[in-house]
Amino acid sequence: FREIQGRIEEVKERRHQVLEEIEERNRKWRDVTENLLEEVNVRYKTLLKKLQAVGETRLINSHDIEDAGLEIYVGFNGAAPQRLDPYTHSGGERSSSVMAFLLALQQNVLSPFRAVDEFDLHMDPQNKEAVSEFIVSTMEGTEDQYMAITPSQITFRGQDVHIIMVHKTDDVSVPTLVEDEP
Predict the structure, then answer these.
(1) Are 115 and 82 in contact (CB under 8 A)?
(2) Are 177 and 164 in contact (CB under 8 A)?
(3) d(Cα 55, Cα 74) in Å, to the nearest integer?
(4) Residue 154, pLDDT score
(5) pTM of the model
């Protein structure tokens, strides 16, 4: 009986230690995530300003790692920021907001090569140009490469920007190198 009681106490102590370790790991996860989000928010807000928008990202349910999430808030043309959703924001606003967030986040991701396909699908001409400038500006001062695939005719301006246009002629795709922009 005493041997079993000793084992029970031992199991209780181990359980207590494991729960403390889990809580410590959750605290570290929360700290790292909140610090990352602070950095991303600064860049996100800067990019949104160029779109005449305001917003932020928020960590929700941070007390429970399994239930935690991220919400993106944005307001265009003087509107108060609201949670990004298909009922409040147009397709172009959602696309622009998500691209601004992804570009802000990518500054914390180590990768020599990045790509995005049809990022401008629902954007108006002004936002297409603004987001193309975002892409180029986030690459400045790095050795990283970025491939943007788009059916639109957007000008990507900057040093070391190379544009390849692919035209479909008689069911054959023909690539053409466009002269680098100064």
Answers:
(1) no
(2) yes
(3) 4
(4) 72
(5) 0.77
Per-position DSSP letters for the chain, written without gaps between them: -HHHHHHHHHHHHHHHHHHHHHHHHHHHHHHHHHHHHHHHHHHHHHHHHTTTEEEEEEEESTT-TTT-EEEEEEEETTPPPEE--TTTS-HHHHHHHHHHHHHHHHTTS--SEEEEESTTTT--HHHHHHHHHHHHHHHTTS--EEEEE-SS-----STT--EEEEEEETTEEEEEEEPPP-
Neighbours of 60 (CB within 10 A): 11
Query: CA dist 87 to 16, 75, 82, 90, 91, Å?
Result: 47, 13, 11, 8, 10
For residue 125, give every residue at least 6 positions away whose Cβ sits within 8 Å of its Cβ, in sequence order, or none: none
Going 55 to 56 to 57 to 59, the CA torsion angle's sign is negative
Q: In Å, how far from its chain's centre is CA 182?
A: 28
Per-residue pLDDT tens digits for 33-88 = 999 999 999 999 999 998 889 999 999 998 888 899 999 999 998 999 999 998 88
Place of tokens 């610090």: 35
Residue from 163, 106, 179 nearest 139 by CA: 106
